[in-house]
Design goal:
alpha+beta; five-stranded mixed sheet; Glutaredoxin
C-alpha cells in the first residue's frame, strides 16, 4: 500500500464535467452535484484505511456543508479487478451503512479521476460557485486512524470560507492516502 500526498492547489482550475452512475441508480453530472455556493468532489474508495478512518467525518461535514450551499459528491475510481472490495455492489453497501448524504459514483473507466488529476484516496477538490478550484487539502489531521474529535476541521473550515467569500485559504495541508489503483494498460 503506497501512501501518496496531493499536489498544491491550482487556484481557479475548472472542475471537469462528468456523467457517472451512482449507487442510487441515477446518472449524476457535475452540475447536478453542485450547490449554489460551490462543489466538493471527493475521490474515495471502500478498502482504503485512510478513507475508513474518516467516513463518519465525511458524512458530518457533507451535511454541514450542504446547509452552507456546498454540494458534495464522492467518486470511486479504483480498479475493482485488483481491489474487489471497491466494487459497485460494495459501494452500495458502504453508502447505505454510513448513510452517505451525497451521491457515491463509480468511475469505471478512470477517465474522471484522470481529468481531475486525483492521486489518492481520499483526494478532495473544493470549488467555488463558478467551479474554480479553491481547495486541494486534507479533511483533518487523520491518517490511518481518526484524529481526536476536537482536531481542526481543515476541509470544513476551507469550504465554509469558500461558501462565504468565494475564496479558499492560501495555506493548505495536502491530503494523504492510498494511491489510486490504476488499471494496467
Amino acid at each position: 500500500m503506497v501512501s501518496t500526498e496531493t499536489p498544491l492547489c491550482d487556484f481557479g482550475a475548472p472542475a471537469p464535467d462528468f456523467a457517472l452512475p451512482g449507487v442510487d441508480g441515477r446518472i449524476w453530472t457535475r452540475d447536478q452535484c453542485k450547490g449554489p455556493r460551490g462543489l466538493l468532489v471527493m475521490f474515495i474508495c471502500n478498502h482504503c484505511p485512510y478513507v475508513k478512518a474518516i467516513r463518519d467525518r465525511l458524512v458530518r461535514d457533507a451535511r454541514e456543508l450542504a446547509a452552507l450551499g456546498i454540494g458534495c459528491v464522492a467518486i470511486s475510481s479504483n480498479d475493482v479487478n485488483d481491489y474487489p472490495e471497491d466494487s459497485f455492489d460494495h459501494m452500495k453497501q458502504v453508502a447505505e451503512a454510513f448513510h452517505f448524504p451525497f451521491p457515491y459514483l463509480y468511475d469505471e473507466s478512470q477517465a474522471v479521476a484522470r481529468a481531475y488529476g486525483a492521486v489518492c484516496t481520499p483526494d478532495f477538490f473544493g470549488y467555488d460557485s463558478e467551479l474554480g478550484l479553491q481547495y486541494r487539502g486534507r479533511l483533518d489531521a487523520s491518517r490511518k486512524e481518526a484524529a481526536p474529535p476536537d482536531v481542526r476541521r481543515d476541509l470544513f473550515e476551507a469550504m465554509k470560507q469558500v461558501a462565504e467569500t468565494g475564496a479558499g485559504p492560501i495555506e493548505q495541508i495536502p491530503s494523504m492516502g492510498c494511491s489510486i489503483k490504476w488499471k494496467a494498460h
